[in-house]
Amino acid sequence: MSAQINTIYRYPVKGLSPEKLEKVMLSANRIIPNDRRFAIAHGSTEFPDGPNWLSKNHFLMLAKNPKLAQLISHYEDDTDILTLERNGKRVSRGKLTDLTGCMLLEQFLVSFLGSESRGIPKIVESKKTAFTDIPDQQISLINLESVKDLERVVRKPVDPMRFRGNLYIEGLAAWEENGWLGKELQIGDITLEIVSAIGRCSATNVNLDTAKVDMNIPKSLQSGYQHRNMGVYAVVKKSGEIKEKAPVTII
Asked: Which of 26, 44, 72, 199 is most buried by a 10 A CB count?
Protein backbone atom coordinates (compact mmCIF):
# COMPACT_ATOMS: atom_id res chain seq x y z
CA MET A 1 0.00 0.00 0.00
CA SER A 2 1.23 3.48 -0.86
CA ALA A 3 1.74 5.94 1.98
CA GLN A 4 -1.35 7.98 2.83
CA ILE A 5 -2.99 9.95 5.61
CA ASN A 6 -4.82 7.63 7.98
CA THR A 7 -6.31 10.23 10.33
CA ILE A 8 -6.13 13.96 11.10
CA TYR A 9 -6.42 15.37 14.62
CA ARG A 10 -6.40 18.68 16.42
CA TYR A 11 -6.39 19.44 20.16
CA PRO A 12 -8.34 22.67 20.79
CA VAL A 13 -7.39 22.73 24.49
CA LYS A 14 -3.86 21.71 25.43
CA GLY A 15 -3.92 18.57 27.60
CA LEU A 16 -7.48 17.59 26.77
CA SER A 17 -8.81 15.03 24.30
CA PRO A 18 -8.30 15.15 20.51
CA GLU A 19 -10.83 15.88 17.80
CA LYS A 20 -10.79 13.90 14.56
CA LEU A 21 -11.09 15.82 11.29
CA GLU A 22 -12.02 14.35 7.91
CA LYS A 23 -10.34 17.24 6.11
CA VAL A 24 -8.68 20.55 6.93
CA MET A 25 -7.34 23.65 5.19
CA LEU A 26 -3.75 24.46 6.09
CA SER A 27 -2.01 27.79 5.52
CA ALA A 28 1.71 28.32 4.93
CA ASN A 29 3.71 28.65 8.15
CA ARG A 30 0.62 27.93 10.26
CA ILE A 31 -0.69 24.95 12.21
CA ILE A 32 -4.09 23.23 12.01
CA PRO A 33 -6.74 25.87 12.82
CA ASN A 34 -7.71 25.91 16.52
CA ASP A 35 -5.03 23.36 17.44
CA ARG A 36 -3.88 24.15 21.01
CA ARG A 37 -5.57 27.54 20.73
CA PHE A 38 -6.52 27.26 24.40
CA ALA A 39 -4.75 25.90 27.47
CA ILE A 40 -5.36 25.47 31.18
CA ALA A 41 -2.70 27.42 33.04
CA HIS A 42 -1.75 26.79 36.63
CA GLY A 43 -3.07 29.36 39.07
CA SER A 44 0.53 30.45 39.67
CA THR A 45 1.26 31.04 35.96
CA GLU A 46 1.59 34.70 34.98
CA PHE A 47 1.35 36.33 31.56
CA PRO A 48 2.73 39.86 31.95
CA ASP A 49 2.27 40.59 28.23
CA GLY A 50 -0.97 38.65 27.84
CA PRO A 51 -1.41 34.93 27.07
CA ASN A 52 1.39 33.75 24.84
CA TRP A 53 3.60 30.72 24.36
CA LEU A 54 5.24 29.32 27.49
CA SER A 55 6.84 25.95 28.18
CA LYS A 56 4.42 23.16 29.01
CA ASN A 57 5.35 23.18 32.71
CA HIS A 58 3.17 26.29 33.10
CA PHE A 59 0.03 24.37 32.14
CA LEU A 60 -2.00 21.38 33.15
CA MET A 61 -0.82 18.44 31.04
CA LEU A 62 -0.98 14.65 30.92
CA ALA A 63 2.64 14.26 32.01
CA LYS A 64 1.84 15.76 35.43
CA ASN A 65 -1.96 15.48 35.48
CA PRO A 66 -2.90 12.05 34.04
CA LYS A 67 -6.37 12.45 35.54
CA LEU A 68 -7.15 14.77 32.60
CA ALA A 69 -7.47 11.64 30.45
CA GLN A 70 -10.74 10.89 32.26
CA LEU A 71 -12.32 13.88 30.49
CA ILE A 72 -13.67 13.88 26.95
CA SER A 73 -13.88 17.38 25.48
CA HIS A 74 -16.01 18.66 22.60
CA TYR A 75 -15.23 22.05 21.06
CA GLU A 76 -17.66 23.94 18.81
CA ASP A 77 -15.94 26.12 16.21
CA ASP A 78 -18.93 28.37 15.60
CA THR A 79 -19.56 29.21 19.27
CA ASP A 80 -16.24 28.52 21.05
CA ILE A 81 -18.22 26.41 23.55
CA LEU A 82 -16.36 23.58 25.25
CA THR A 83 -18.25 20.66 26.75
CA LEU A 84 -16.54 18.28 29.18
CA GLU A 85 -17.77 14.74 29.75
CA ARG A 86 -16.73 12.09 32.24
CA ASN A 87 -17.91 8.50 32.08
CA GLY A 88 -20.37 9.46 29.36
CA LYS A 89 -22.01 12.26 31.36
CA ARG A 90 -21.66 16.01 30.91
CA VAL A 91 -19.82 17.55 33.85
CA SER A 92 -19.17 21.11 32.65
CA ARG A 93 -19.82 23.44 29.75
CA GLY A 94 -18.77 26.99 28.94
CA LYS A 95 -17.71 29.40 26.24
CA LEU A 96 -13.93 29.61 26.07
CA THR A 97 -13.95 33.22 24.84
CA ASP A 98 -16.34 34.43 27.56
CA LEU A 99 -15.33 35.28 31.13
CA THR A 100 -18.38 33.63 32.68
CA GLY A 101 -18.01 30.56 30.49
CA CYS A 102 -14.37 30.17 31.51
CA MET A 103 -15.27 30.57 35.19
CA LEU A 104 -17.77 27.70 34.97
CA LEU A 105 -15.14 25.42 33.45
CA GLU A 106 -12.45 26.58 35.88
CA GLN A 107 -14.68 25.90 38.89
CA PHE A 108 -15.21 22.36 37.71
CA LEU A 109 -11.49 21.84 37.07
CA VAL A 110 -10.43 23.07 40.50
CA SER A 111 -12.81 20.62 42.19
CA PHE A 112 -11.84 17.82 39.77
CA LEU A 113 -8.06 18.24 40.10
CA GLY A 114 -7.69 19.77 43.56
CA SER A 115 -4.13 20.77 44.44
CA GLU A 116 -2.75 19.52 41.12
CA SER A 117 -3.67 22.84 39.50
CA ARG A 118 -1.36 24.93 41.75
CA GLY A 119 -4.17 27.27 42.71
CA ILE A 120 -7.28 28.05 40.71
CA PRO A 121 -6.64 27.03 37.08
CA LYS A 122 -7.00 29.67 34.38
CA ILE A 123 -8.25 29.01 30.86
CA VAL A 124 -6.18 31.09 28.47
CA GLU A 125 -6.32 31.76 24.75
CA SER A 126 -3.39 32.46 22.45
CA LYS A 127 -4.31 34.83 19.63
CA LYS A 128 -0.79 35.06 18.19
CA THR A 129 0.54 31.51 18.16
CA ALA A 130 -0.54 28.29 19.95
CA PHE A 131 0.16 26.45 23.19
CA THR A 132 2.09 23.65 21.51
CA ASP A 133 5.14 22.04 23.13
CA ILE A 134 7.41 24.13 20.91
CA PRO A 135 7.13 27.87 20.13
CA ASP A 136 7.22 27.42 16.36
CA GLN A 137 4.20 26.96 14.08
CA GLN A 138 4.73 23.30 13.20
CA ILE A 139 2.50 20.27 12.84
CA SER A 140 3.33 16.74 13.96
CA LEU A 141 3.38 13.59 11.84
CA ILE A 142 3.25 10.05 13.27
CA ASN A 143 4.16 6.92 11.32
CA LEU A 144 1.74 4.19 12.44
CA GLU A 145 4.20 1.47 11.43
CA SER A 146 6.79 2.90 13.85
CA VAL A 147 4.21 2.70 16.63
CA LYS A 148 3.57 -0.94 15.70
CA ASP A 149 7.30 -1.66 15.84
CA LEU A 150 7.46 -0.10 19.32
CA GLU A 151 4.85 -2.67 20.39
CA ARG A 152 7.47 -5.32 19.64
CA VAL A 153 9.80 -3.67 22.15
CA VAL A 154 7.25 -3.11 24.94
CA ARG A 155 5.49 -6.44 24.23
CA LYS A 156 2.01 -4.97 24.47
CA PRO A 157 -0.30 -2.79 22.38
CA VAL A 158 0.56 0.91 22.16
CA ASP A 159 -2.26 3.35 21.41
CA PRO A 160 -0.97 5.76 18.71
CA MET A 161 -2.97 8.55 20.35
CA ARG A 162 -0.49 8.55 23.23
CA PHE A 163 1.70 10.63 20.88
CA ARG A 164 -0.95 13.33 20.29
CA GLY A 165 -0.05 13.79 16.62
CA ASN A 166 -1.79 15.90 14.01
CA LEU A 167 -1.30 13.65 10.97
CA TYR A 168 -1.12 9.85 11.29
CA ILE A 169 0.39 8.16 8.25
CA GLU A 170 -0.01 4.54 7.10
CA GLY A 171 1.77 2.59 4.39
CA LEU A 172 5.36 3.47 5.35
CA ALA A 173 8.19 1.30 6.56
CA ALA A 174 8.84 1.54 10.31
CA TRP A 175 11.01 4.55 11.19
CA GLU A 176 11.16 5.75 7.57
CA GLU A 177 10.26 9.22 8.83
CA ASN A 178 13.63 9.49 10.60
CA GLY A 179 15.23 9.87 7.17
CA TRP A 180 12.99 12.75 6.15
CA LEU A 181 14.74 15.57 8.01
CA GLY A 182 15.37 18.47 5.63
CA LYS A 183 13.16 16.95 2.92
CA GLU A 184 9.77 18.01 1.59
CA LEU A 185 6.56 15.99 1.42
CA GLN A 186 3.55 16.40 -0.81
CA ILE A 187 0.28 15.54 0.97
CA GLY A 188 -2.85 16.28 -1.00
CA ASP A 189 -2.62 19.94 -2.01
CA ILE A 190 0.00 20.94 0.56
CA THR A 191 3.77 20.83 0.78
CA LEU A 192 5.52 20.22 4.09
CA GLU A 193 9.16 20.63 5.06
CA ILE A 194 10.31 18.17 7.72
CA VAL A 195 12.35 20.08 10.27
CA SER A 196 13.00 17.90 13.35
CA ALA A 197 12.29 14.69 15.21
CA ILE A 198 9.92 14.74 18.19
CA GLY A 199 11.50 13.69 21.46
CA ARG A 200 9.02 12.07 23.82
CA CYS A 201 8.29 12.80 27.48
CA SER A 202 6.33 11.09 30.24
CA ALA A 203 2.96 12.28 28.87
CA THR A 204 3.10 9.23 26.59
CA ASN A 205 3.11 6.96 29.63
CA VAL A 206 -0.56 7.69 30.36
CA ASN A 207 -3.18 5.16 29.28
CA LEU A 208 -5.86 7.33 27.68
CA ASP A 209 -8.60 4.80 28.49
CA THR A 210 -7.81 4.37 32.19
CA ALA A 211 -6.00 7.67 32.96
CA LYS A 212 -3.30 5.57 34.64
CA VAL A 213 0.45 5.53 34.05
CA ASP A 214 1.08 2.02 32.76
CA MET A 215 4.18 2.30 30.53
CA ASN A 216 7.52 4.07 30.31
CA ILE A 217 7.56 5.00 26.63
CA PRO A 218 10.68 7.24 26.67
CA LYS A 219 12.66 4.51 28.43
CA SER A 220 11.39 1.86 25.99
CA LEU A 221 12.35 4.03 23.01
CA GLN A 222 15.81 4.61 24.45
CA SER A 223 16.45 0.95 25.22
CA GLY A 224 15.00 -0.30 21.95
CA TYR A 225 16.32 2.30 19.51
CA GLN A 226 18.89 4.46 21.33
CA HIS A 227 16.69 7.54 20.95
CA ARG A 228 13.46 8.86 22.44
CA ASN A 229 11.84 10.04 19.22
CA MET A 230 8.44 9.19 17.80
CA GLY A 231 7.27 11.27 14.86
CA VAL A 232 8.53 14.42 13.17
CA TYR A 233 7.65 18.10 13.11
CA ALA A 234 6.93 19.83 9.81
CA VAL A 235 6.37 23.37 8.51
CA VAL A 236 3.65 24.02 5.96
CA LYS A 237 5.35 25.51 2.89
CA LYS A 238 2.41 25.46 0.45
CA SER A 239 -1.18 26.06 1.55
CA GLY A 240 -4.08 23.82 0.62
CA GLU A 241 -6.50 21.16 1.77
CA ILE A 242 -5.72 17.68 3.00
CA LYS A 243 -8.15 14.83 3.60
CA GLU A 244 -8.08 11.36 5.03
CA LYS A 245 -6.47 8.94 2.54
CA ALA A 246 -4.53 11.76 0.83
CA PRO A 247 -1.34 10.31 -0.72
CA VAL A 248 2.00 11.09 0.92
CA THR A 249 5.08 11.39 -1.30
CA ILE A 250 8.61 12.74 -0.91
CA ILE A 251 9.29 15.50 -3.41
From this structure: 26
C-alpha to C-alpha distances, 101 to 37, 116, 128, 145, nearest whole angstrom: 16, 22, 22, 41
Domain that includes residue 150, residue range: 4-31+134-250
**Length of the chain in terms of residues written:** 251
Q: What is the pLDDT of residue 153?
A: 97
Neighbours of 118 (CB within 10 A): 15
pTM: 0.95
> What is residue 1's predicted lDDT score, i.e. its pLDDT?
67
- For residue range 74-93, what is the model confidence (pLDDT) as tens digits? 999 999 999 999 999 999 99
Question: Which CATH number covers residue 230?
Answer: 2.40.33.20
Of 125, 147, 171, the residue at which a domain comes to its end is 125
Question: Beta partners for 13?
Answer: 38
Query: So what's the pLDDT on residue 204?
Result: 97
